[in-house]
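Reopening this one. Same input as before:
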Amino acid sequence: MKIERIEIDSRVLGGNVLAIQDFDPAADFAAFERGYLAEYNPIYVSAKVPLERISDVQAIESTGFQLAECQIRSQVKLRKPYDVTAFPYDFEQVVREEELGPVLEIAETTFVHDRFSVDRAVRPGVSGARYREYVRKSFLSPDEAVYRLVDREGRTVAFKTHRYLGGAEVLLLLGGVHADYKNLGLGLINEYFEFNELIRKGIRKGITHISAANYPVFNLEIAQLGFRVLATFAVMRKTYRRDAANKE
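Same output, byte for byte:
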C-alpha cells in the first residue's frame, strides 16, 4: 500500500486529503494508518477497492472506512463522427481566461451525484469549489483541454474536459450542462461534439469514471453512446478532525 496526497482536494477542504493506493487487506493497516496520520495529519482519506473483492471492502470497513460511492470505469471506441449539422451550437476549445469564467460557473453548480456533494461529513460548497479547481487545472495543464458548447447568441451552455494519454487514447474527465438548459438533450449533443473533435485529432479510445448513482450519465453513456464497463469500485472514505473538514 502507498499513500498519495491529493493537491486540489486538500486545498479546497482546507486540510490534507489522501488516497490509499493498492489497498492490501493482509497488511498491518493500523501501522500504515499511524504512519500517514503522523506524516500528513489528514482530514479525509479515501481508497478505491474493486467491487468484486467484497472481502477487501469488508476489511477496510473494519478499520473505520465507510462507503462514499460506487464508481464505474468504462471505455468507448471512437469510430466515426456524428452528424451535428442540425444543432445550432459551436464546440470551442477554451484558450483565454475570459472564456473560462462561464465554464467555471457551470462546473460549480451542475454536479449533484458526486461523493462530496452527498457526504454529510463534508461541508456544503466543497463539491462545487472542487470541480471549479479541476476545470481550472485542465485549462492550465498542457496535456489536458477544456471545451465549451456555445449557442448562436454566444452563451456557454455546456462544457467538457479531457486528458490526452498518448497515442490515440484520452481520459474523459468532466462534462456538465448549464442548469438553465438541463433536460433538453444537451448532454448527448455535448458528447457528440466532443467525440467529433477527438476523432478529428486522431483519438480512437476514451476512458472515463462515473458514479453509479449518476443515472442520467450512466444511461447516456452505456445505452446510447456504446460505452463498455471495464471495472467497478467501492470508493471508501474515512474522515479525521471532523471540525476541520467542516470549517467555513
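So the earlier flakiness isn't reproducible anymore. For the record, The chain has two domains: 2-70+234-245, 76-233.
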